[in-house]
Design brief:
8-stranded mixed beta sheet, 254 residues, two-stranded antiparallel sheet
Amino acid sequence: MGNKIQHPKPNTLKNFRSKHLLAALALFIGTGLLIVLTNLQFSNANPSSPSSLKPHPLPSTLAQWQDSTNSGDYFSQVTTTDVGYLVWSKFPVRIHIKRPQLINAQQAQTWVDNVFTTVQEWANYLPLVVVEQAEVADITIERKTPPLQIGKDKIPRARSALTSYELYTKNNVLSHRFTILLSPTQTGNYLLAAARHELGHALGIWGHSSLPSDALYFSQVRNPPPISPRDVNTLKRVYQQPTGLGWALEVSQK
């Protein structure tokens, strides 16, 4: 089964100049299907717009990456946004793993250790650091049941994971932050797969692969794969693309 994508109505640059953009976009795993849900929200703020989209220099880890297998990529399946591709420009990216409170200490530590393992895996390709303070995190990962998804058939469906982001400005620079929810039903290899997959989204791969041998495959599989060369090739191509993130905003004159 393929991806099902819901798109909002296109936003004009004029609308973006008149309102501060706070976007919440979600990628989640449903029952046997990973669906892409898009939801844009706006709040009043100072009129501003992103400067012209332009790429940032590649982080050294990706600049040095070479795929000796010539495996290709699935960059064509990565979705861009009104502010360009969702790349990070300030490193290391700070990740907060929220320790679960509603399970015993041993189970909580096992959960944290599994999620930390996936952070280490992705850290081979992008500079990442785990932080204790949630308020300074760029990405927060939490053991929490994602809200039910109501499909066109009006039937509520459980999600095994949910990744969302919001845009904000700091010192007149356009920035973003991510939140990842991992269902408590995910354990063992399935927890590792879900955390690996969702962290891939949060690091910039805002789309899915059609091959089950990739970590960003659109659905869960019986034997979850590790990060593949195709995943890294796609990540590298994403970081070569233009974006408004990490650049100063232009303030319109009235």
